[in-house]
Amino acid sequence: MYVCLCHGVTDRDIREAAENGVSSMRQLGKELGVGRQCGRCACHAREILREINTPDYLALAGMLAQPA
């Protein structure tokens, strides 16, 4: 889905950038232009970055709960 219409950036583009080391809105703006024009996309882009950069505690707990 398109997140930034001004620059044609999709949620996939943001996820890919995050997987390649982008961890802040400032970096995302430099890399993809997100949040640099009208700013309407900034809130949703920030949510996607948080989702990618937040550890999956349930998966981690599941791995630790299994016997070795």
From TrEMBL:
<keyword id="KW-0813">Transport</keyword>
<feature type="domain" description="BFD-like [2Fe-2S]-binding">
    <location>
        <begin position="2"/>
        <end position="51"/>
    </location>
</feature>
<comment type="similarity">
    <text>Belongs to the Bfd family.</text>
</comment>
<dbReference type="InterPro" id="IPR007419">
    <property type="entry name" value="BFD-like_2Fe2S-bd_dom"/>
</dbReference>
<dbReference type="InterPro" id="IPR052371">
    <property type="entry name" value="BFD-associated_ferredoxin"/>
</dbReference>
<keyword id="KW-0408">Iron</keyword>
<keyword id="KW-0411">Iron-sulfur</keyword>
<keyword id="KW-0001">2Fe-2S</keyword>
<dbReference type="Pfam" id="PF04324">
    <property type="entry name" value="Fer2_BFD"/>
</dbReference>
<dbReference type="InterPro" id="IPR041854">
    <property type="entry name" value="BFD-like_2Fe2S-bd_dom_sf"/>
</dbReference>
<protein>
    <recommendedName>
        <fullName>Bacterioferritin-associated ferredoxin</fullName>
    </recommendedName>
</protein>
<keyword id="KW-0249">Electron transport</keyword>
<keyword id="KW-0479">Metal-binding</keyword>
